[in-house]
């Protein structure tokens, strides 16, 4: 059972919290590159782990992510003028470079050197896989660069989107680890969503699912088996890489899908959705379907990362579709089914009231692993999942003889092998 104290410990990621300190040890997906695509483009506000930040790309193309508010009298630099190698506050003209260093205070004589004493908190950022990642931890403990396959394949093999979700990050992550819900919540979509239809999707509709969880160096492998043909089992194998990356088992030759569930604050998270194919460019049809909100992606409100289907419109629930077995929950689309269900638990689910069963093993082990890692960081130890080799893993969906040990049998399929497609039925 998760106590109230443990629940709070897991949920809070603000500055100085144990989980916050843990998550700050990793590179964190922060923005789509396209949000600040060009030199001197408008700055963008973002909130991460409870911190309000501003991001911009200066005249030289350098990336800056720093405290949102001007050091003078606290104006939001979202109003800033991004020009001549820096971001200038429009109130009294103080100007900052990408490191947060103040480089001009027009009201003070240059000789005073006043501006040298002013610096906003700023974070290192890198660009990889059409995503801007930031590192918010202690500068001397910066890890090597992230090495997830979706971020390293050619751009034409990849589609990335993100959406806000109105609940704590852990609730969303747990949905990614709990692969049994697919047989229920997404049951009818497995037959209708063009990016999921496959033989495996038919096996997945089988509700007699058993769980096996294996701890790995970077996180966990979650194997779920369902009956397939005679004396054979269909295994769906999910990867969780600490602290918030999951890789969803594939369907047929459809591309691989994964998520990162990044805390915005304690009651909201950004759900990153990554689709990639290791060996081929995505087709025009696939890109089109994803842009229309198909697969694991969703349609967003204009100029926003909030889904069109959301809490305020009751997720456009269709009770007729629910009754007539067109949608198990009545909510349309795989991603919004997850979001609706997870948001419905409240902004921070009270886990002390749960009644867990054997298929919740993955969730139980992930919570324990996260708590252990946060405590280890408090003791000065490095957490798991920093080593780029632990990122170079894949999910898989395979059929094995009844007696096979899934983790051994799938060993090759569970790591990135360049030039080789994922294992999937
Ligand atoms: S508040 Fe920014 S320059 Fe005065
Ligand atoms: Fe789901």
3D architecture notes:
There is one protein chain. The chain is of the alpha+beta class and 425 residues long. Helix content is 19%, strand content 25%. It is built from eleven helices and 18 strands. It has helices spanning 4-11, 18-23, 149-152, 169-177, 189-192, 199-204, 284-291, 319-323, 334-343, 361-378, 406-409, and strands at 27-32, 44-48, 51-57, 63-67, 81-83, 86-88, 95-96, 102-104, 122-128, 131-135, 158-165, 210-215, 219-227, 232-241, 245-248, 256-265, 268-276, 396-401. The strands form three sheets. Strands 11, 12, 13, 14, 15, 16, 17 and 18 form an eight-stranded antiparallel beta sheet that branches. Strands 1-10-9-4-3-2 form a six-stranded antiparallel beta sheet, with no helix packed on it. Fe (ii) ion binds next to loops.
Tally of helical runs: 11
The arrangement of helices and strands along the chain is HHEEEEEEEEEEHEHHHEEEEEEHHHHEH
Number of DSSP strand runs: 18
Structural class computed from helices and strand pairing: alpha+beta
The ligands found in this model are: FE2/S2 (inorganic) cluster, fe (ii) ion
Biggest β-sheet, characterized?
A: 8 strands, antiparallel
Helix content: 10-25%
Oligomer: single chain
Relevant terms:
425 residues; alpha+beta; eight-stranded antiparallel beta sheet; six-stranded antiparallel beta sheet; globular; binds FE2/S2 (inorganic) cluster; binds fe (ii) ion
